[in-house]
């Protein structure tokens, strides 16, 4: 009798998913707050968001990383646009 491997699953552990969503929400809140802050704080907040998103969403992580280290620094409007884009994706 031939034994088959168990079926693959993409299910995420609920505790891990909960933690990941909490981290994304906290990072997004920091990004939104940084829009009114000096450029180094915007850079730092967007960089943290990029690192959090590496675990969840590679496309947005790349966009956040690029924005965090852009020259000149991330403009408040772009920071808020990124936060809006990520929130739309999380809600979808």
Compute the average pLDDT. Answer: 88
**What is the gyration radius calculated from CA atoms?**
17 Å
Class of secondary structure makeup: mainly alpha
Q: Which of globular, elongated, flat, extended, rod-shaped describes the shape?
A: elongated
Runs with pLDDT <50, length 5+?
none
Helix fraction, binned, reads: 55-70%
Oligomeric state of the chains present here: single chain
What's the β-strand tally? 0
Q: How much of the polypeptide forms β-strand, as a percent range?
A: under 5%
Keywords:
92 residues, elongated, mainly alpha
Element layout with pairings:
Layout: H1 14-34, H2 39-53, H3 58-68, H4 76-91
Commentary on this structure:
The protein has a domain at 39-92. It has helices at residues 14-34, 39-53, 58-68, 76-91. Helices cover 68% and strands 0% of the residues. By secondary structure, it is mostly helical. The longest helix has 21 residues, at 14-34. It is built from 4 helices and no strands. The model has no long low-confidence stretch (mean pLDDT 88).
Briefly say what this structure is.
Helix content is 68%, strand content 0%. The chain is mainly alpha-helical.
């Amino acid at each position: 009798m031939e034994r088959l491997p168990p079926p693959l699953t993409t299910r995420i552990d609920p505790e891990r998913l909960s933690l990941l969503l909490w981290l994304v929400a906290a990072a997004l809140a920091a990004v939104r707050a940084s829009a009114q802050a000096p450029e180094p704080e915007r850079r730092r907040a967007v960089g943290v968001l990029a690192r959090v998103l590496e675990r969840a969403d590679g496309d947005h992580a790349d966009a956040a990383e690029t924005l965090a280290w852009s020259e000149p620094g991330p403009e408040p409007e772009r920071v808020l646009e990124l936060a809006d884009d990520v929130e739309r994706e999380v809600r979808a």
